[in-house]
Each structure stands twice: as structure tokens, then as C-alpha cells.
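Worked example 2:
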Amino acid sequence: MSARSELTPQMRDYEAKFTDAGEVRWLPYLMYFHPAGHRSATVNTDASGFRYSEAHGRRFSVADRPGAGPVRLLAGSSTVFGIGASADSWTLSSRMTEHDQRPEPWLNVGGRSFNSTQELTLFTLYRHLMPEVSEIVLLSGFNNLGLARLPASVRGEHGAFFNCNQFFEAMGAGAQQNQGRSRLRRPRQQPPAPEPVPSMAEQIAYAADLTLRHLDGWRALARDLDAKLTFVLQPLSGWVREVGSPEEERLFAELDELGSFSEVYGDILQQQVCRDYADAIEAGTRKLDVGFVNLGPLLADAISEDQWLFVDRIHFTDSGHDFVARQLLGAI
């Protein structure tokens, strides 16, 4: 039996519909979002595709809330969505609601594989479904940095997004079909020369600038809502510790054979990258007067040597979600 099947059997449910190879629901403005109305023992989504939070015997989501009292929002990408949790009750938003002494529940506003543009767009598109918002925590950062190495022609003005090659290929095919219906045809063009991969310093500068640009949009919205706003730089396994627990190391080795996260993003896993990226973002948050937390070092100080935190290099186990939720509540 593989390490993933033995240690994280819940990942099969995510791979069925919540990965690029699963069910991608293509949507205007957002590009893609989760399947709507999905039901399983592992993950459930509401009529708009948001994952349910579950705590204190209640279940609630952006589009399905019992009552209309104020809420707190946990926004971000797949880590916030809760990839790795064995049930809705083990996501960060659920565990934060469970442990928070304040009465407002935490809504899950995570979008799998979203960049900062999509995170902000998601909130603006569904703001009308939310009641009074007293606090927003934006736990994000990795996807912008991971996508910053793509060519400038792909990044455009607002940053690259996952699945962008599929999008551009489909748009190109559509353009060719339209040209075929016209009497005037454009001459064939030579493919562009390969663009050099930016240095890590350039990637960090670009990703931090993009993150802060969109954080300024969150700041304006939070100010209008009279809501507290905190940006939390999400942790990668390598940003917490260089060598993981025995379970993590087994999983990482198997994942490297299957798809090699470390081969693609291994340079980002270095702790110096975390420090440089965090410094750049924190400097910007001070200018914006927005709270900032670098979660990786906080976890590193609190974690025990053999504590199993990650199901892969970016997503958490059930106990990992609970541990991170407690640390996060103490930091914000």
C-alpha cells in the first residue's frame, strides 16, 4: 500500500473532483471554482461552491447560513479551502470557530488554486450573500510566488493563474476558428522566443508587489465594512522545518515520484525565501496599516519534532488544521 493510501485516504475524495484532473467548473470572471452542491463524507459545498464550516453542532457557509448575525471571514486559496481535511469539521475555518471564544463564526472563503486576483474577485462577487463582517483574515501568498516564474506574456497585468495554458490554448483555437469564417486571414506568426526565467529575487519582488496591490483592495473593502483585516503568509513545509515528521517524509518522497512538487518549487521551499518574501510583504502591510503574520516561524517555534502537520508540502492533516487554527487565533 502506498503512503498516501495508508496515511491520507481522504485525498482520494479531493482528487475525484477538487484537482485539475477532477471536476473544474469554469466560470466567468473567476475562471474556475469548486463544484456546487457537492456531497461526500470528506467535503461538502453549498449552492455557490463554497465549502461548509462545521463547529458546535452547526454547519454554515457563504451561501447557506442559519441566522443573519455578524461573521468573520477566512479567505485564501486551497489551504483555506481545506485540502487534506478528512471532513468539513477539520478545516481551518471550522477549527477556528470551535476554538474562538467570540460568538461570530468563521466562514470559509477559500478558492482552490486561486491567486490574489481571484481571491479578491471571489469576495467582491459574493459580498451580497454575507451579513455584517467583523474581521477578515487573508491567509495566502504561495500561489502568487509559485506563478511568478511564468513568462511575462502569461502573467499579463494581473498575474498568472493556474490552468492558464489551457485557457490561452482554447482562446487561440477559438480565434483560429473565427478567422476561418472571415475572408481576411492573418498571416501565420512564428512562435515567440522563450523568455528567461526570472531570478528568485525578481520572483519575490513581483509576487510581493502583486500581493500588496490586491491587499490594498481588501483594505479598502475592510475599511468600508469597518472590519479588522490581517494578512497571514501561509506556511510551506520547508518554511516550518527542513525535515518533517516520519509520516511527512514518507508522503513527500512518494509525491516527488508522482509529480515532484520539490522539482518545480524546491527553490521556494528554502527558509531564506520565506524570510525575504515575508520581509517584502510586511514592509508593504505597514504602509497600508494592515496586520501581518508570518505563520511559518510561529509554527516552527511551537511544533514538536515528530508532530505530523502536512499531508503534502502545503496542506494540513486534521490535527495539523487544529494546531494551526490555535496558533493563528493566538497571532491575530
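Residues 174-189 have pLDDT under 50 and may be disordered. The chain has 15 helices and nine strands.
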